[in-house]
Amino acid sequence: MRLIYFIPLLSTKGGQERTLTDKANFLARQGHEVLFVTYEHDGPLAYQLPPAVRHTDIDCHYFSLYHQPLWRRPWALLQLKRTFRERMGRVMDEFRPDVIVVAIPNTENFLSDLVRLAGKTPVIVESHLAYGHTVIRRGITEKALYWLQNPLRAIKKSSLLVALTQGDAECWRRVGVPRVTVIPNPVTRYPEEISHPVRPQHRIVCVGRLAPQKRFDRLIDAFAVLAAKYPSWHVDIYGEGEDEKPLRQQIARHGLTERIRILSPTDQIYAVYGQSDFLVLSSDFEGFGLVIIEAMACGIPVVATNCPYGPADIIQDGETGLLARMEVQDLADKMEWMMAHDAERLQMGRQARQSAARYRQEVVIPQWEQAYASPLTIAH
Fold first, then answer.
1. Which tens digit of pLDDT belongs to each residue from 346-359?
2. How many C-beta atoms lie closer than 10 Å to residue 246's C-beta?
3. Listing from the earlier edge strand, what are the strands of the sheet with 302-305?
4. pTM of the predicted model, to two decimals?
5. Cys-Cys with 330: which of 15, 45, 325, 380 at CB 3.0–4.6 Å?
């Protein structure tokens, strides 16, 4: 099978980029031909691709529109979309894909053009973010551009939409997308053996982009509630992004600069999990929550906000982790339970690892292969 994966860029270390890279690498090992097509690529690859997986960038920087005066943006959009159709058309003529896979959000900008270019070639849409945060645009300009492009109409014309969670799938069905299925993301790696320190490290780990969605401010406030009572515990946050400065200021205001660290993303995150006691995800919304299953695969439990969507699909509350309301005090209460119950936390971690086995690549990716070759797809 010849597959094109269409995504804005592969130079950012994020869950979507990591998952798609992992999936493409696995499919290439199964003999499939895979080509990544990006349009905003601006640096080295965040995650390594093997020689069997190709990558090309067509250099259609959508966000350059926001450097234009408001009155020029509709005209600039038309020019950009014409450039896209020319360049993407050449790529498709050369590669001749059997299936085109489009990862949303952000690719909606060119989705209607891509569906028209595809003709009889099946287009599968992968939803990597909760529905409401994919289609809702905050600013007047964003709303206007979104209305002009009408990506929902293009999504309805696609061969199949793959959601990562049942909640997200129901949202797409309610707005009239006719063909929707649910397939979770695979875990990047499921260690065959794990080893943890004999004694607790009193370390809480958090992983994610330092962006408003992730609500690390909520995590910091929750830990501040507990810090005086549990003086041996500390928090390590691995990530980078636009919220770094205000988060550091917030940590300083709480007087916790020695207890809460913000660290750069690491390629050794599995080693970090192995030296931690539990993970906290404090988001307002998620597409899935890859870090949850990574931590669980390493045998550590998770405290996560019960946000749309992902955590509740993955975590069995009270057995493999804890789900908290999206508020500081309840998050603090759930974190405190983990901090105060060593034996129960260790048992929860063992159960979490067993539960995470259902996300192993050899279990999940055949489901994606079947979706790509399904009668729904071929009948498009």
1. 999 999 999 999 99
2. 13
3. 260-263, 234-238, 203-207, 278-281, 302-305, 321-324
4. 0.88
5. 325
